[in-house]
């Protein structure tokens, strides 16, 4: 079957996830800058999560550009990824509302880790369906960035109970790694 419905559905779900997140930003009562101070942790957690969702949307888009069609296994793998991404608004709000306390920060990392695993499963399903010599397989290669991300998430989760700020620094590091453009798929498709 074609990939169009998968793309449209995924884009819609990600748009709804981002909308839910922004609705968690409550308007303060008052008109001076002092009323914004308590919202700083909520806003910072929102920004980090927005960046992660943007990274997933961008990479998901590139994945789908490198394939021709999908099957049931791919649909389920994609839904699995969307499930973990749909939990990001909850853990984002919990982390921000509790000023980056240890348990919310650890759970935030757990959701990011499970989303990364789900993304990996989706890439394997795509490669399995299209073949080891396909454009998607060549473009993904050894997926060094994906493996580094999983390791950093796995380190950050227990680190949250020692220092939630260091755990958040690792989450930010993962985001920075992925913000550096990854041109593997574009390069493979133009060759």
From TrEMBL:
GO terms for molecular function: potassium channel activity; proton channel activity. The keyword Chaperone does not apply. InterPro entries: TMEM175-like. GO terms for cellular component: membrane. It is a multi-pass membrane protein. The chain crosses the membrane at residues 12-29, 35-55, 75-95, 101-122, 150-180. Its main location: membrane. Keywords: Ion channel, Ion transport, Membrane, Potassium, Potassium channel, Potassium transport, Transmembrane, Transmembrane helix, Transport. It catalyses: K(+)(in) = K(+)(out). It is found in: Membrane. Belongs to the TMEM175 family. PANTHER family: ENDOSOMAL/LYSOSOMAL POTASSIUM CHANNEL TMEM175, ENDOSOMAL_LYSOSOMAL PROTON CHANNEL TMEM175. This is DUF1211 domain-containing membrane protein. It comes from Nostoc minutum NIES-26.
């Amino acid at each position: 079957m074609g990939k169009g419905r998968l793309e449209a559905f995924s884009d819609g779900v990600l748009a709804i996830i981002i909308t839910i997140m922004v609705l968690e930003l409550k308007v303060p009562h008052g008109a001076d800058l002092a009323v914004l101070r308590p919202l700083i942790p909520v806003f910072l957690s929102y920004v980090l999560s927005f960046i992660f969702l943007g990274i997933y949307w961008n990479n998901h888009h590139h994945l789908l550009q490198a394939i021709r069609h999908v099957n049931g296994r791919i649909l389920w793998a994609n839904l699995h990824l969307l499930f973990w991404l749909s939990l990001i608004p909850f853990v984002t709000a919990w982390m921000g509302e509790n000023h980056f306390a240890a348990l919310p920060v650890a759970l935030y990392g757990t959701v990011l880790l499970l989303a990364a695993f789900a993304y990996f499963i989706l890439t394997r399903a795509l490669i399995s369906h299209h073949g080891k010599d396909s454009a998607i397989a060549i473009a993904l290669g050894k997926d060094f960035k994906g493996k580094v991300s999983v390791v950093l998430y796995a380190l950050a989760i227990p680190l949250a109970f020692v220092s939630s700020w260091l755990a958040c620094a690792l989450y930010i590091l993962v985001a920075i790694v992925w913000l550096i453009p990854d041109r593997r798929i574009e390069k493979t498709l133009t060759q």
